[in-house]
Amino acid sequence: MESKTLFNEETEPPGSLTGAIGLENHPQKSFSRFNPLYNHSTRTPHADRPVILGRPVRMASPFKDSPKSRDFRKRFFPEITYAVWHDWRWQLRNRIGDAHTLARIIRLSENERHAMIHHAKHLPVAITPYYASLLDENDVFQPLRRTVVPVNDECIRTHGEADDPLGEEHDSPTPGIVHRYPDRVLFLVTGFCSTYCRYCTRSRMVGGRGKHRFDIDQWEKGIAYIASNPNVRDVLLSGGDPLTLADEKLAWLLARLRKIHHVEIIRIGTKVPVVMPQRITPGLVHTLRRYHPLLMSIHVTHPDELTPEMSQACIRLADAGIPLGSQTVLLAGINDNIETMKRLVRGLLRIRVKPYYLYQCDPIPGSSHFRTPVAKGLEIIRGLHGHTTGYAVPTYAIDAPGGGGKIPLLPEYVVGRDGGDLLLNNYQGKSYRYPDCNC
């Protein structure tokens, strides 16, 4: 094992591969043609190819390349080949994080430009080139654009908002571990994300902000805590985004957890298949499938994210036997209507992702412009029940502020009693009686 050095935005966790090293030291790294730090000689990545007799095996193209991506690449990255574009490390090195660079891709409004220049400290901006290709150049209200480009509303703090609204730090017995439920723990293993969502629950700690650090000591202490608690049967790896770690680092973590006999299930929470599907390489999938039962929760926000590239990434994971669930945050003006949500949940099922949770947006500072009334969420669930397959209906939940945990919410279908009968309304609003057992 390597020496116990710190790793965060600047240095990654233990492992021989490097990825997002020194990103925050170079705020102007975006377009490679405008980036003097980009090495144009490294145009043929081989790290994820099988190797025989010391040489990488030539493979068929492992990634889909949609017309939209090709057009975007031709327009803004004309010197970048297919192989480089689909190298996830290149995507990380060339994240877009400043107003000058982003303005080359989309026409920034004055609101967006001002927020990026003067208020970036609230949550860093980072957008992978791939995800930037999905942004509308002119429409400031485009749902995907609103989720990653800041506006001045992020600086307005309203009643009930808090840096740690879910009280995770109160339930943290050791750094990186949140132990709220009896049989499972949340294991925060990195503060790094490939793309930063503007409504992020952990905006207090991602992007190198605050006191949170992720090093080998933290990992070891977290693993020791889990090993010492035999009631823990389920471990959720999160952060930041665990899939920004190199394969060897993930394998190290997963192998250590698999050695703990009472850990039955390991889960990974990630946005990577959505914002950087190039990360879901055959090599990564080969690594993950060694540690079953392994499940994955993917944060999908809008049906426009269901691109050919993202779909291929999810199907590749599903083919490896990894059950996939989507955890969607309900966001005002983005996905807060029945038709949008119906398109999303149906599209998810087509690529073998189960709509798992629909979360009410957590009250982090500056999130009031994203939050909807709870009545809106109930309206959406009511509009899904009976109008699409039950497999496509997520559980609508509030993660209770202050550490109360997830509280599921349902529309009122039980409307009363009449003698021994239970009075029910169905999805059409029609009334029915059920002879309830009183024994």
Describe this structure in words.
The protein has 439 residues and is of the alpha/beta class. The protein has 3 domains: 16-52 and 60-155, no CATH class; 169-409, Aldolase class I (TIM Barrel, Alpha-Beta Barrel); 411-439, no CATH class. 26% of the residues lie in helices and 17% in strands. It contains 14 helices and 16 strands. The strands form 4 sheets. A 9-stranded mixed beta sheet has the order 4-5-7-8-9-10-11-12-13. A 3-stranded antiparallel beta sheet has the order 14-15-16, with no helix packed on it. It is globular, with a radius of gyration of 22 Å.
CATH superfamily of the largest domain: Aldolase class I
- Counted by DSSP, the helix tally is 14
Helical fraction:
25-40%
CA-CA gap between termini = 63 Å
CATH architecture of the largest domain: Alpha-Beta Barrel
- Number of beta-strand segments: 16
Q: Write down the overall mean pLDDT.
A: 85
Distinctive features:
alpha/beta, 439 residues, globular, 14 helices, three-stranded antiparallel beta sheet, disordered N terminus, 3 domains, TIM Barrel
Task: Please outline what is shown here.
Helix content is 26%, strand content 17%. With 439 residues, it is α/β, with parallel strands linked by helices. α9 (247-258) runs parallel beside α11.
Architecture blueprint of SSEs:
Blueprint: E1 6-7, E2 51-52, E3 55-56, H1 67-76, H2 82-85, H3 88-93, H4 99-102, H5 110-118, H6 129-132, H7 143-148, E4 177-181, E5 184-188, E6 214-215, H8 216-227, E7 234-238, H9 247-258, E8 265-270, H10 272-275, H11 282-288, E9 294-298, H12 308-319, E10 324-330, H13 338-350, E11 354-360, H14 374-384, E12 395-400, E13 405-409, E14 414-418, E15 421-425, E16 431-435
Parallel strand pairs: 5-7, 7-8, 8-9, 9-10, 10-11, 11-12
Antiparallel strand pairs: 1-6, 2-3, 4-5, 12-13, 14-15, 15-16
Helix pairs in contact: 9-11
